[in-house]
Amino acid sequence: MVVVMSVGATAEDLAVVVETVRSVGCEGFVGRGVSRTIVGDPARLGMMNPKGHRGVAEVAGTTLLRGDAVKPRTSPYACQGPGEKALKILAAVRAETGLPVVTEAIAPVPVGLVASYADMLQVGARNQQNSRLLEAVGSVDRPVLLERVDPSHGGGRRDLVVPPSRAAGADGPIVDVHAGDRTMRRRPGPDGARPGRAGPDHPVARRCAGPDGSPAGTAGLMERPTPLDGGVLIVGAGLIGTSIGLALTASGVSVLLDDRDPGALRTAIARGAGVPFTEGDRAELAVVAVPPDEVAETLCDVQKRGLARFFTDVASVKDRPIAEAVKLGCAMDVFVGGHPMGGRERSGPEAATGDLFRGRSWVLCPTAETAPEALAAVESLAAACGARPSILAPEDHDRAVALVSHTPHVLASAMAARFADAPASFLALIGQGGRDVTRIAAADPVLWRAILSANGEAVADLVELIAADLARTAADLRAGPASVDAGAAVRQLLSGGAAGHARLP
């Protein structure tokens, strides 16, 4: 529960509230708050209701309202912003809240028109060299806000917002309201103004809700507590677990490590992936970094011991481990299946690297039971590791990885197995192509047996299809050059391969 005091609340008023909270068996945590700016999400401004926004000012203690009205992309129906319609909305919100408003000026919309509605004009980062626009803005009697960087839109990543903003001279609280992907819009924390932290009729909830009442944006302080501030426990100090630990510690997150293999644990700790877990330690999030066939039992054990508030795994198969966890009675509302799409042909903590997931997809597989707070915590984990969170149903995930990961591993192993008895003089001729095709076959066979077993049906379907293609190709090849030239199998295989590869992102 969040209790918002009025701006003029006294120390005595605060003491009464804290005592009331304690009287019902809860603990009160007091946040003094800061002066804030609320940024109107440009993607939603054209649909804002000018009524009912006084509550936003009261809740956030704001002194200034920014909303982009003429900037491209601010309209849900066109490439350009709503223009004067949105400027009128800003004026109406100013009348409702008493807050001065700032909005961006951009050619070819007349600067004088924008200035007639706004109290302050903004010039975007990409217009800093537009001398005509700067001259026009300077000719009107309005203060000017020069946006020297645009880190949020530039990369779409939370971890790249604060550093360039600070480098550009920002020295206050950094606030963002976004309706972008989940990594940008779910920014939890005690100071976050989120629909999930208030009733549906709360003014902040109304502001952040979409037309159907679903969350459309989040207002959150970039340097306020996140779900990872309570620390992360990683159970399993192999390649993936240690790589996560290295990425998190580099981001300033406290990491506890546990592994039944003392040697692996010592190596991971020595490499700086975290500190050893001891009984009595607790974390906000536990990462189960074990093979697929061990996920369910390990998850239940960690949950029964109360080692964390939220839980995730990193196994490359999702459907079967989740079903097994349900059967064992694991708490599924606080668990989110996860799979970082990064790896190496080498295994163990010695092969770990802190940038293993940088720029990679990190698949999250929530279920109908998943609590929003649990999903937000795991999204924060992925973002802190430099990955791009994406959402898939468990069964869809397994079909996808069968195609892009598991079956390619089978084929690489099948080809590499031909090298086992080949003459050394033959192998001495191998070039980069042969190495590329078989590189992943060097991975841990024990781990991969567990992976393929857990996703056997989907992989078997693809292996059978590919085997049929290869059988037809072999038949054409055996028939001789004339058959190869005239036959369809070889031509289809090669042209289909080129077309498929061209589709890869």
Automatic annotation (TrEMBL):
List every stretch annotated Disordered.
147-220
Gene3D superfamilies given for it? 6-phosphogluconate dehydrogenase C-terminal like domain, Aldolase class I, NAD(P)-binding Rossmann-like Domain
GO terms of molecular function = cyclohexadienyl dehydrogenase activity; NAD+ binding; prephenate dehydrogenase (NAD+) activity; prephenate dehydrogenase (NADP+) activity; transferase activity
InterPro entries linked to this entry? 6-PGluconate_DH-like_C_sf, Aldolase_TIM, DAHP1/KDSA, DAHP_snth_FXD, NAD(P)-bd_dom_sf, PDH_C, PDH_N, Preph/Arog_dehydrog
Q: Is the keyword Oxidoreductase in the record?
A: yes
From which domain of life does this come?
Answer: Bacteria
Q: Decide whether keyword RNA-binding is in the record.
A: no
EC numbers for this chain: 1.3.1.43
Q: Alphabetically list the UniProt keywords.
A: Oxidoreductase, Transferase
The record's listing under Pfam families reads: DAHP_snth_FXD, DAHP_synth_1, PDH_C, PDH_N
| Record's compositionally biased regions (Basic and acidic residues) | 147-160
The Prephenate/arogenate dehydrogenase domain is annotated at 230-505
**PANTHER family reported for this sequence:** PREPHENATE DEHYDROGENASE, PREPHENATE DEHYDROGENASE [NADP(+)]
State what protein this is by name.
Arogenate dehydrogenase
Organism of origin = uncultured bacterium esnapd26
